[in-house]
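User: Hey, my collaborator sent me this sequence without any context and asked if I could get a structure. I don't really work with proteins. Can you help?
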Amino acid sequence: MKGAFQKEKFGKNLTTALFVVLSVIYVFPVFMVLVNTFKKNTFVKTDTFGMPNAESWASFDNIITGVTFGGYPFANSVLYSVIVTLLGTFLILLFTSMAAWYISRVDSLACRIVYYGCVFSMVVPFQMVMFTLAKTADTLKLNTPWTIPVIYLGFGAGLAVFMFVGFVKSIPLDIEEAAAIDGCNPFRTYFSVVLPMMKPTMISVAILEIMWIWNDYLLPYLVLDIKKYRTIPIHIQYLKGSYGTVDLGATMALILLSIIPVIIFYLTCQKHIIKGVAAGAVKG
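Assistant: No problem. I've predicted the 3D structure and written it out in structure-token form, which is a compact way to encode the shape of the chain:
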């Protein structure tokens, strides 16, 4: 009995140590971005892993340089990233949750095809469709921050529908039948009964989609007119001087500014991810 207890304790300690090491590995790059944000550009290149000192300390010069570099307002990039992220996430949450509810309640061949099509879309590499997508988006005038969320809806639908369908199947059908008896039509049943019950999964999907869209570089770069519209990742990529030289200090500063909102948002809402995924795994 004592030997089994010691073995279990050793296993827990080993697991804890392993996760501590993994946490350090994941946090270390973010820490180095923070350190190099306040070092002069020369020392970022020559002493990347060194701590700032009196000679290398740059104060807030890198942040000022990054924000004002190239004549393109960084505030515009922040605004476009916010618009694309919030609007894209809103479209994904609204339409995929409604689609998942319909798929779960209407057992038909068409619904099964749509569902498995959404699941299959998660394994299709973006590189397979990016050139055709860029041409199609340009033809349909989806190349602005107000229209590119439609494209994000298409790419984000797979994971969202998969998670929502799993959760909706765990909702007792009796609740919806009672709402129908009380005179609720399908739209009112969804918005008044089903949607409030989907809150855990809704928050989980929102967190995942916001982190994806906010940090996405390739899709906006291919679709948007980058002379007019630059999201934060594109703005960072254009921190180049003459002959292609890159101000790494300013780059680190803008990377830090871009990841701070996501980190704060994730730390605030991380408990909802586990809750939502667990809720969606009850059935289906």
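In plain terms: Confidence is low (pLDDT under 50) at residues 280-284. You can pass these tokens on to your collaborator as they are.
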